[in-house]
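Table S2 (continued). Query chain:
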Amino acid sequence: MKHKLKKFYWGIFFVCAAVFIVLNQLGYVLNDKISFFSLAFTILLIPVTIESLVYKNFFGITFPLAFIFILNKKLLGVSDEMLKISGGNFWLIMLAALLLGIGLRFLFGDTKEWFRSQTADQVNGEKVYCNIKFGGSSKYIHSENFKRADIKCSFGGMEVYFDNARCLESAEINIDCSFGGVEMYVPRSWNVRNNIRAFAGAVEDRSDKSAKDGPVVTITGNVNFGGVEIIAV
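Corresponding output:
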């Protein structure tokens, strides 16, 4: 189902892009309020937003909408004097998009069951890599000798399940999260050492602090304008 929706959204995107090129050549599209760049990126972000709405990925909704607002401020009647996009207000809009995404997530509850209804990705091996941009994803890690995971999340949401990953002695998880949210579900037997650095973001560690005899798993990385949760299962 998810694959069919993606084909539909991107099909619509390319059809709209083709129509736009023809209309532009006829002189019906571009004017002093809208440029080729802003219109092209707006068309590109629309299917991302729709897909995120269908799968209830709030960060994949709020961030694209923020970019659409910035790109089309003239068309919406917002002047440079009212909103100085070139200055610090750009980051304030991004922060507002982040807070709105977090707020929607709290208001509409836990998205875990929703994500489970999607086609989940299973990742195998001692060293794994997970990456998501402008979307939502669930990753299930399977390993008999887990050693390292690199997790990168930008403008989206990701859930990573380590309950089927067996760590023999020690392992490291590195996170790079910008304008997004990451939830990690780790076994209670893991002795988690949280060394994540956060700038304009938050890290909530709910791992089992009594698991002193289990394998040592060190979590490092950076969180910028985002949030990370570590949850024991």
